[in-house]
Amino acid sequence: MAMNTITRLSQFGFLAVNGRDAKTFMQGYTTCDVDKLSQSENLGAICNIKGRMVTNFRIAPTDDGLLMRMHKSRVQDTMEFLSKYIVFSKAELVDVSDLWYCHGVVEEKTVHESIDTADGEAIRLQVDDNRHELWSMTQLGDESGAENWAAADCANSLAWIESATADHYLPQMFNLHVLGGIDFNKGCYLGQEIVARAHYLGDLKRGLHHTLFEKSLAVGDELQVTGRPKGSVVAVAASEALAVIANPGENTIAAETPEGESLTLTPMALT
Q1: Domain boundary among 114, 136, 155
Q2: What global pTM score does this model have?
Q3: Residue 180 pLDDT more than 70?
Q4: 248: containing domain
Q5: How many domains is the chain built from?
Q6: How far apart are CA 184 and CA 42, in angstroms?
């Protein structure tokens, strides 16, 4: 019988928002509607006043409030960013990266076996048809499948804000509007006016592209077209990468890496 494959994803950390006002507070700072969270609706972002993402995340309710999983490099900076606004709320921000572990679970569509987390504390969120994230207070599996998991993220338009990409991109530039990470019908949140304007006016000047590479590529690397800067890499996994490119269209784009490798950039499907 087919078995679940469990991979520990150590690149991620956790930020908890606990307290009576946790949901009310976060509703004013997230692109998603925290009142509509579910196993399959769990993506969102926190933006600065200019609509650029401070971080993006998966999020789930807990008995104490809310728990966000984001790139580990963004936990402390996000906590400091939100700390400026939370002072008048009955809620607190806690870095719980040393308590929670993120795992990627790949399973056959017909197999839904239970996973023993030893401590019984676990949150399971859907990623796609046969992938889930499992958050637990117990480490499971190893990191041998982490590169494959990241490559699958790239193939599915999933890029995570890191230190090198923070405060540069609207959520739509990471396809969050396609992936369900933006609720355009919820109330106001920080940066909402600019995010909404780009949506309703179609004023998105940069878009997400996928490429394959053979040499070296890193998050933050600048890509050029005919010798001019065209965009930057926002995610790298094995031989795959995602980049946000200026003036996106429906056609592929020929570009070059900083080392001179030729790339073919394919726009990710936008709706």
Answers
A1: 155
A2: 0.92
A3: yes
A4: 205-271
A5: 2
A6: 15
